[in-house]
Protein: HAD family hydrolase
Amino acid sequence: MIRLVISDMDGTLIDRDEILTDKAIKIAEELKKKNILFTIATGRAECMASDYVKKMKIQIPYIACNGATIMEGDTVLQRKQIPLKGLRALMEKADSMNMSLVYTADGKESIYRETPWIRRQQKEFNRYFHIHVPTEYEWKHLMIDKLMIMDETREGAIAILEDMCRELPDIYGFTRYTNKSVEVVSRDSTKASALKSVATLLDIPPESILAVGDHQNDIEMLRYSGIGAVVGNATEDAKHAADYVASGRCIDGVQEIVEKFCEITV
Structure:
């Protein structure tokens, strides 16, 4: 019996337009009527996830920054951070290749400099306005939640950064997203590790969890849960790791999954 549904955000609950539809809100409402808890696990920092959490009326802990952060409302339950000093060469290399850098510290996001991609994000989604190049003191002492490097051209150059990530000290972990980006967090921060903590807090065993996702950073969470399901637009790796692959993309796939495994009608 499913007692908890946990879903990824981007590419799952929301599409490229990042609009939370009425259908998503309805799914959360119908699950609540069945006494099934609902929450999210996202790569976003809490500053970019909190509005969605409020709209879906999520009152239990949720996962941000790919597992580095666990929030309950405005309260931080967990924040695993990494030292910026080990990332300087990686960041400066990415910047020299005209890639976009967004780093998160204590839930707040900063950009290294404006790029065409950053300017479009500012215009389309009203974000990434705080520009800050770390001072020498910050390079040595600042702790961050997450680093994201985005390659707008998506022609394969991100592989150079991935190779550099492989050479980082053991405290760092990373995820590559096809040819578009890499994200760096603490090595022991994953959606699965954070989900284990959330499940312990809620006293819910793995076999009673339905996890829904679409990408590489969801795979461990899918495997940890009693049922791991992906939407139709999921990557091939995520599909291979899932127990069920929906035919619909994004929110339509989520609807298909919860109706099948939670016996609700949206």
Remarks:
- The two ends are 19 Å apart (CA to CA).
- The chain has two domains: 4-77+189-262, 82-186.
